[in-house]
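Figure 2 data, in text form.
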Amino acid sequence: AALLNAARGRRLALVGGAVRDLLLHRQHQDPWRGLPDLDLVVEGRAIELIEPLSEQLSQIWGDHAQLKARIHGRYQTVELELRHADQTWLIDLASARCETYLKPAWNPAVVLGCLEDDLVRRDFTVNAIALDLKSGSLIDPFGGQDDLASRQLRFLHSNSLRDDPTRLIRAARYAARLGFE
């Protein structure tokens, strides 16, 4: 609720591994620290949610909440660490964006976009599923749910490895961890 209020009417969605794991009935956690790890995409600038989110959390929890933010301006993302009482949540908040790879394996050129644009830039169909937090609807433009059911990893497009060769390593890691082909 605090995140939705901080978004102030902008579209906000849970994306990536958290949605994948939710659909697999698994708890999604940071693999190194074992903490809840949420990936969110907002239409508009992610950095603009930091102050309203902090205000929302203060209204809910008073001075008992701590919110640390690390901003990555080039990619329009913010890493948040939220602490309350004895719980900590890791939240990666990204601006919905389009990416263009000017040359194979180069860092992409980034411009703001919509949620659907953001899903297109992801690695696998099973990670290109979003849960719209306002409507509660699942957005799955690439058949990721079918691939989850068949326990299959499928790259989003024919240039996936050309754009980012590290996706091959992620494929091996996900296949081993999730038992996928």
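Caption note: The chain has seven helices and nine strands.
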